[in-house]
Amino acid sequence: MRSGYVLAPLLVGLSFSGTFSGAVAAENTSAQDSSSVKKQSRKETVVKKTTPVVRTEQAVADEPEQVIVTGTRDPSQTAARSISPITIIGGNQLRATGMTDIREALVQLSPSISREVNGSDQGSVIDALSLRGLNADQTLVLVNGKRRHTTAAIAVDASSQQGTTPVDLDMIPISAVDHIEILQDGAAAQYGSDAIAGVINVILRSNNHGIHLQAVNGGYAAGDGFTTGENLNAGFKLGNRGFLNLSAEFKHQDRTQRTGIDPRTGKNNDLATGQPQVTRESIETNFGYHLTDAIELYGFGTFTHRDAERWAFLRAPSTTAADGLLGMYPNGFEPVETMPENDYGFTLGFRGKRLYGFDWDLSSTIGGDHDTLGDYNSANADAYKETGYSPSRFYLGSYSNQQWTNNLDIRRGVDLPFLYSPLNIAFGGEYRRDTYSIGSGEPLSYYLSGAQGYQGETPQDAVNAARHVAAAYVDFSTQIVKRWRVDLAGRFEHYDDVGNARTGKISTRYDINRFIGFRGTASTGFRAPTLAEQNFAAFISSPNYATGQIAANSPAARALGSPGLRPETSTNFSAGMILNPLPRLHINVDGYTIYIKHRIVDGGYASGARAVEAYAAAGVDTSGFSGDESAVSTNYFTNGASTRTTGLDITAHYSSDFGRYGKVDWDAAVNFNHTNVRNIARTGEGVPVLNAQQISLMSTENPSNKLIFGGTWRQGKWTVAVHEIRYGHTTSDLTFVSGSNAFSTTNFYHQINRPRFVTNLEVGYQVLPQLNLALGGNNVGNAHPSRVPSFTADYNNNLYDTLSQQLSEEGGFYYLRADLSL
Description:
23-stranded antiparallel beta sheet; mainly beta; disordered N terminus
């Protein structure tokens, strides 16, 4: 029995779930009736508070005047009066999806969020998502308003997320979430690097009483991928001046298999495609304590340990014979990549009021991620040929990163006679130190051809990199007249490795009356290249090809034409309309355009002899690869192109009351999105750094639109929720693996993925006042992505287009869940 199952017996008997979430949490942005907007006092009101204000999750979801903290530094800003489009998703909605992690829950709830069908290698373990069709590194993730550190594991293989080291949302316990604020607007001028597509701010629970337990158990229609998630959340009072909130969580998911018949064996026995096997344990704490009526000590943190195993491609007996390993594996073998991981993030701070009329917040946050790479059921073919011995288990190296961030934020309202409300002035500074390291593996893991499945990191690849970041910002917001609000923000950042960045933002909103309002934003932004993008290097060999990465700043990359990396820069424009045609009908329409220059892509491509020479310059010996030299390729990160992303978000929410027949909350939300790639850079030899496949990864792999619509019916003890998700079409340029175009870097198979429909359904029943049970299914019809032809999949290891960001390839997921409140 796995040790992690120690919590399962406690809850498995209850495990059969609450209220279906599939609903999009549409932002409640009703325009304010000008007659109800009263001019604020010329003197700011100070509310004496001896205990923290604690909101229930139901209040968070239902309260129309929910105060928001994302995209604004005005403490009175609400979702109903937000200048920028913002969606609030309650923690109960996340936990009611049947998903055991935040990323998968958000995909069910927000049309602006998508994710890859399935990643490869360590990239398949990381919970990366796309906001508005951009990559994961272009969305900033905050926890309680503080910058969250990123993962150390980089997405290596060709995909829409290639090269990213995003925040891994699976490392934040879903049980700890009070609600999530999704700012769908550029915000680099407010928060710094990465906030090009928007901001996801995870607000942690702060209830000071009560215990909540939840258990979720489920599996896929194919009969595999059993998943169990058990969590506990408890709140406590710290005297009558503070609170302490704790969460603990366990999750296990079995691997799935989504491969076809392997022509080498005549069996469906390749386990390389599907979700990895993952076991995760995490804990979280959040506390606040008022030292005085005006000064509060606060802190929060998470620690997560995760063990993940990912199967590499099958080495059939014929392949094993060609590699000279029949003596070790007479029946063939399939290597398994392992990645034990420790992730932590802790914040401690003081905040106060009325210090010479200023509110202030001083905090320090330290977070990091450490990944240990391993491989078992493997071998080093060259070592075995030379000595007759090879280990079957290897230590491949490690990836580590750490981020230490210190913030000082100051705010005050200033009464000016010519403004309708006080001018809110905010300013502050930030100092951050980033570190990133790669540790080399054991010698036999990289000797000649190295370990099968994933070659170990070499001493030449090992790196210890660090940088210092300093920033200062200023923010002004006010109501100029009764119905017109304006926000201005500016920020300066200095990176000691890539230079300076200056960004600005102006936002405005005008409410004509309580039925209609307009808002708009113009901003500039940037994203600094990550230390991983600048320094990562690796080499991977499979039975049919060898590929890898060369560090962007290395002599080998420069020999191929790399100029080094510079920051991405962006210009964002958005315009929106808020409509309230009926008392319980709220509609929001927001269009946007995002220009990004110097976009960092894995585009410095070389193959054949040039790739072999580049690897040699980097100290990598490719002579052990048994395939043809033409199947050897390499890449380096470069500022390869500019893009223009245009789109439209529409959300609507309506509540209806049918008396004794119950109430229904209807919701609908859709995102339209298109990215155009232009101004493609060229190497010193005049060759474009992007080919057609790499262009499609940025422009057509994300659905052209995504629609979520449905409703939740409540009557007495029953709850029934039904939601339909429609994923728009995508197109992919797939690599040929056989025929005259095999492994061509110029000719690709153009795959068209037609729209796909997914139905989510849940039925819940309140058995006791404390106990809710539910039976549900995500993708109850067991829909799958488009099939791909066999000549684009090595030995039929891919049945579906795994580069697309439509629905998951896993198929229908059915679950039972129990929620117990004490």
